[in-house]
Design brief:
single chain, 363 residues, mainly beta, four-stranded antiparallel β-sheet
Length: 363
Amino acid sequence: MRPRLLRSLTALLACSAALACTAPQAQPQRVARWEVERFVLLPADVRHPEGLAADAASGQLYVGTFDARMPASARNNQLLRYAADGRLLAQRSFGETPLTGLAVADGRLYVLNFGAGRLQRIALDFDAATPVEDVARFEALVPAAPAPGRIDNPDGSHDTVVFGAAGFPAINGMVFDRAGNLYVSDSFQGAIYRIAQATRCTPCTVGTLLRDPLLATAGALPFGANGLALNADESVLYINNAGDGRVLRLPLPGGPLAVLAEGLYGADGLQFHDGRLWVVANQIDTVIALDEAGRVRGRAGEFLGIAADGAPEGLLFPASTAVLGDWMFVTNLALPLTAREDDEWEEQVRRWSLSRFRLPGQR
């Protein structure tokens, strides 16, 4: 036997005996975890921060509240303006009308006034007396509810969900494209609206881009279409369905609408940042980072209890995110949902807050 062949055969036998010669092992793929910290406490008389937006040019954060207490006269809805170091710079009262989505576009702050059913805008450097401009009004759709949804079951049968809606336009999430067109979600009527050149029109015409059973919900959390985000080249609109715990994918300009990810109960605020979809899952008190295939790549935060000052530790019913510098900021809506008393941590909250976590790759 040739020496080289003998050496090869000896090595092969040694490998077999020791079970030590294997193919190169793949590197592990892990889901990242990021810890959150408190950023600021809201003023003592302000509660339920919902909408959040950031202006990179000024380094300021904007917060809108969803105070829907009854009677309506008890409400104190506010639009707040913060510096990046947490100083409260200004607040503007919206009284009885709760606010949802916020966005900065073309040098102004856009506000979804949920209570009034209107898109409004205001100067970025607003103060307590700055005028608010109406941009568009949202109306009841006909029919008020989308078409029934079909659910196929594993045994070959199927269910049909017939949705109800009273015609209240529950405007919730919004996102601008680079051309100034605006997309808005309607959580009750199962719709996505599009307002062409929303930064330049007054008043603006609201067009219905899409109505679909996937945009409505029959879940315990009664909000369907919610947060919106556009991918990097604005070829895809992503949509959260809060009640169904889904992220949906809509190729632009016209579909078809499909499910990207499931099991994200309370999928609320949504944004696309640095190649990831950041989903605020308000019923599991977590911000989840997805890739564009719908796989979970990271999780930020959890609920850790109520601090001595009455504010949540960690995240509690988080609702929206915004990026400013190296940080992602999160609103803690902390909104009780059930009629039963003393069954939710949200009922124990006495001060409301914003949290934050450092973005991956930042120091």
